[in-house]
Design brief:
single chain, alpha+beta, Protein Transport Mog1p, Chain A, 4 domains, seven-stranded antiparallel sheet, six-stranded antiparallel β-barrel
């Protein structure tokens, strides 16, 4: 046995890099997760049971959780003991760590530089001395039962395994490499050539499954890993799906999902037999703007939780989002004027099957045919407006009101009503904003976007007093977030004070809706006369529908000046053509949304 351990350690040194560091270090890899958030949660859970938990980002982009580092012999012993006691997953294995990159656990430490854990030496067992009478017959010692070493493969010697391996066909060799890749031991080309990388992966699999790590798998071992892979494929129902309409070829778990319907730019596969898993293929023609629009709209779906990681480039995006009840991975890439990708959604109970299925989808995804789904059937805006996007519920704000730009960097003035009990505030659906100033007496609030904006038009305020009878136009999101752009409503100034003579308020003859509150009221030159106030009952009396009120430009400018915003004065003296007035008023108007 001592000879065997030495040979095993030597095999690790040869197969896992040859350097002194590689010879002396090994890890018990127990789990892999697709996102950092999920991996941190699992590492935290394992740390409650083990003191030697470490986490790393893999070269593949996945995140692994491991125990260690140990010397190779201690790693094998640790793996054997933990698997025997069912303390770690059954597919855990010993890894060299050569695929480990940045450490994320323990937090604040360089996991790759953790000190080697030295396993305590076993206490020697001393047999007790028993006195035997001189005349007593020697005791008969029953024959000890043979000890079966789990690291020894008795059915086939190394030489026999090498001869059996030499007889494999090229397809059989590639099938073995595919199985090693499937279980996470191999990440090189599936070419049927058994070089250094394949040998290392074979040894890693052998060590992880309690066999001697020779780097040459026996016939029984090859049959085992191939059969295990086929069993999982059968359980998931993984089949290559050629979706000609979408121009996508991909392996999908058809035991868990089934085709449901087309809804451009999506192909829906709904869950089967309450599997807790759904798949959506993405396919549409477009450019970078289309890609960004798709990325933004996906953020509004209930099936994409707000937490998690996102990455957007000029050529594609990935989204890994999760909460306590749902997890989602979305991917899309732009190439040759076509946007192709996929999205998988799963419940926590389906996490293991989802991980296997997602790995197969990622490895098999390819675009074919040079075509995409016909986008003319349902436009993205229409789908979002009708809350039918991707056949899933769109995340809706608690309420939406109007606002308008008051500075060249994108500061927005709105009604204080829009901000009550908000978990977060957005401008035009996806731009985060914070409250930087407010005036409770006037009902005004100033919002600053988290990223600097460059609005086409900014409010220019009327310098002189209001005049009764002036024709005005209100720009606002009358129907809140139901429409993609603001509407104009026309009316006149009825009085330059409130009903009780209040200064700083003007009364309008104009029919408005709740979503219009906070919108700019302009005259024919495009000058902003004030901001529409929310409709409220006066002393318990419900006013006629055509009665509305505004904060005057003078009171608004006082509030903005105190907040450090320099306002622009209107200088145009002639009326604008109707189309120019519409463009100016709607371009300065912003949808302000309050989210739970």
């Amino acid at each position: 046995m001592r000879y065997f351990i030495s040979v095993l350690a030597l095999m690790f040194a040869v197969l896992f890099g040859g350097g002194a560091f590689a010879q002396s270090r090994a890890w018990v890899q127990i789990e892999a997760q697709p996102t950092l958030t999920q991996a941190e949660e699992r590492a935290r859970a394992y740390s409650a049971a083990f003191s030697d938990v470490a986490g790393f980002r893999m070269a593949s982009g996945w995140y692994v959780i491991a125990l260690g580092p140990y010397d190779p012999d201690s790693a094998l012993a640790r793996l054997r003991d933990l698997r025997r006691d069912n303390l770690i997953p059954g597919d855990s294995f010993v890894a060299s760590g050569d695929q480990y990159r940045d450490g994320f656990w323990p937090v604040g430490q360089d996991a790759l530089a953790l000190p080697l854990i030295v396993a305590p030496a076993a206490e020697p067992t001393v047999a007790p001395v028993t006195e035997v009478a001189p005349d007593a017959a020697p005791a008969t010692t029953p024959a000890a039962e043979p000890v079966i070493d789990p690291f020894v493969e008795p059915q086939e010697t190394l030489a026999e395994a090498q001869r059996a391996e030499a007889a494999l066909t090229r397809d059989e060799r590639r099938d073995l490499q595919s199985a090693l890749q499937w279980f996470g031991f191999y990440d090189s080309a599936i070419d049927g050539a058994f070089g250094r990388g394949t040998r290392a992966s074979m040894a890693a699999w052998q060590a992880a499954n309690g066999h001697e790590a020779t780097g040459v798998m026996t016939t029984k071992q090859r049959e085992q890993i191939v059969a295990d892979r086929r069993a999982i494929i059968a359980e998931l129902g993984l089949e290559t799906v050629i979706e000609e309409e979408a121009g996508i070829e991909i392996s999908l778990p058809l035991a868990l999902v089934s085709f449901d319907h087309y809804e451009p730019p999506f192909v829906h596969f709904t869950e089967k037999n309450n599997s807790g898993l759904r798949v959506v293929l993405i396919s549409e023609p477009g450019d970078r703007a289309t890609l960004r629009g798709l990325y933004d709209i996906l953020q509004t779906l209930e099936v994409i939780p707000q937490g998690g990681e996102r990455s957007l480039t000029d050529n594609g995006f990935t989204i890994d989002a999760a909460n306590d009840s749902l997890a989602t991975h979305a991917f899309a890439e732009l190439s040759g004027g076509l946007i192709k990708g996929y999205m998988m959604v799963w419940t926590p109970e389906a996490a293991d099957k989802a991980a296997r299925s997602l790995a197969a989808m990622q490895a098999s995804f390819k675009t074919i045919g040079g075509r995409a789904l016909d986008p003319g059937l349902v436009s993205l805006d229409d789908v979002q407006r009708r809350t039918l996007l991707a056949g899933m519920e769109v995340r809706k704000p608690r309420l939406s009101r109007s606002g308008f730009f008051v500075s060249p960097t994108g500061d927005v003035l709105t009604t204080l009503e829009a901000l009550q009990s908000c978990g977060r505030i957005t401008l035009d659906r996806d731009i985060e904003a914070t409250v930087t100033a407010q005036d409770a007496a006037l009902g005004l609030a100033l919002l600053t976007p988290t990223k600097q904006l460059a609005p086409r038009h900014v409010a220019a305020f009327k310098a002189d007093d209001l005049r009764i009878g002036t024709e005005v136009a209100l720009a606002g999101y009358s129907y809140e977030d139901a429409l993609p752009s603001p509407t104009l409503t026309y009316g006149t100034i009825e009085d330059t004070t409130g009903l009780a003579g209040e200064a700083g308020i003007a009364r309008l003859s104009l029919s408005s809706l709740p979503g219009d509150a906070g919108g700019p009221v302009v005259d024919g030159t495009g000058a902003v006369l004030g901001m529409l106030l929310p409709a409220q009952a006066q002393n318990g009396r419900v006013l006629p529908g055509e009665v509305s009120f505004l904060n005057t430009a003078a009171s608004i400018k006082t509030m903005l000046t105190a907040a450090g915003v320099t306002t622009e004065a209107a200088s145009r003296n002639t009326a604008l053509p109707p189309e120019d007035l519409t463009d100016l008023a709607t371009s300065m108007t912003v949808l302000v949304s309050c989210w739970e």
